[in-house]
Amino acid sequence: MAAAMTSRVASAQPGTVAPVGTAASSTDDPPGFVTIDRLDASSRFGIDVSYIDLDGDATLLRAELAARYVDPATAVGGYVQVPFAFARVSGGDRSETVTDLGNIEIGGIYAPTVDATHLRLVLHAGITLPTAEDGGNEAEVGTIANVARLSEFLNSLPGAVTLKLGVAPVFRSGVFFARVNLGFERNLDVKNGSIPDVVHLGAGVGVDLGGSAVMLESANLLVPDERHDGEVTRQGLTLHELAVSARWHGAVSPFAAVIVPLDDDLKLVKVALTAGAEFAF
User: Fold this and answer.
1) Which among 23, 87, 111, 235 is least surrounded, fewest beta carbons within 10 Å?
2) How far from 20 is each of 41, 114, 177, 210, 240, CA to CA, in Å?
3) How far apart are CA 41 and CA 112, in angstroms?
4) Which residues of 146-178 are buried (b: 16+ CB within 10 A; e: fewer)?
5) Phi and psi (nearest 5°) for 265?
6) Which homologous superfamily is 2-280 in?
7) Which residues sit opposite 241 in a β-bridge?
8) 3-state secondary structure at position 159
9) Averaged confidence pLDDT in the chain
């Protein structure tokens, strides 16, 4: 099923702005979004867990450990993300359990402020390590679980080394904030075949309520048609999701989201629920 999906189918008022090209205090930045790309200018580590409600008698969970550090003086830092999936499928008096450690992603971040209007750019470049399980069932479970974070949809391909690039302008004006993510993936090596390039587009808007924030997020993935001599040799794929999310401020930052697929390519997924927390350091 994973192969089929892959072929067919991540304060109420602003403070003083830092000089251009440096990272501002985290209090000047908007709260982080939950389902689109998590990378920003803050230094945090955390965990999130997602429950994916599927058609059929199955339980599917996804967990991720993540950490990032950005130096306040230079706006340069790094990140690591470790996905894990668990599935249990029951039928009659039998049940089967499958687990999958996905491909660990590591990379660098550059997050400078642009001007005094609270516009920041977050750029990142990363690569996945081929740590995902080799089995077809494991890859299937991991790929479907990654529906909870489309920016990492291909991070469970067995034996895959994937280059990942992204840029995100982040804007804040008073209590309102927004972010647009544009990402690109190219598989440098993958076991059993080839995977086409992938484009990610995410967008989010939110309102900072002081101690918490509420957000509306849109995550989208595009795999263009593959062509040879003007003929389509591989059909492309688009996936779209909408999420309503919330995050609380502080050294400990809990968050939660409800994620709803919007197209037929994800029709086996009814809804995904994500909850977790990040810790500042």
Assistant:
1) 235
2) 14, 5, 19, 26, 35
3) 8
4) bbbbbbbbbbbbbebebebebbbebbbeebebb
5) -65, -15
6) monomeric porin ompg (2.40.160.40)
7) 219, 261
8) coil
9) 85
Residue 16 pLDDT exceeds 60: no
- Residues 214-258: tens digit of each pLDDT: 999 999 999 877 766 667 666 778 899 999 999 998 899 999 999
Distances (CA, A) of 165 to 122, 196, 225, 265: 11, 15, 20, 25
Evaluate if residue 54 carries a pLDDT over 60: yes
The more confident residue out of 210 and 9 is 210
> Which of 7, 15, 64 minimizes the C-alpha distance to 208?
15
Q: Model-level pTM?
A: 0.85
Give me the sign of the Cα torsion angle 114, 115, 117, 118: positive
pLDDT (tens digit per residue) in 129-167: 999 888 778 888 998 999 999 999 889 888 889 999 999
Q: Which parts of the chain fold into alpha helices (H)?
A: 2-8, 136-145
Q: Is 185 left (phi over 0), alpha (psi -120 to 50) or beta?
A: beta
Q: In the chain, which ranges are E strands? A: 44-54, 58-70, 76-91, 94-101, 105-110, 113-115, 119-128, 161-173, 176-189, 198-208, 212-223, 226-228, 231-234, 237-248, 252-261, 269-280
Q: Are 189 and 172 in contact (CB under 8 A)?
A: no
Cα(141)–Cα(35) distance, rounded to whole angstroms? Answer: 19
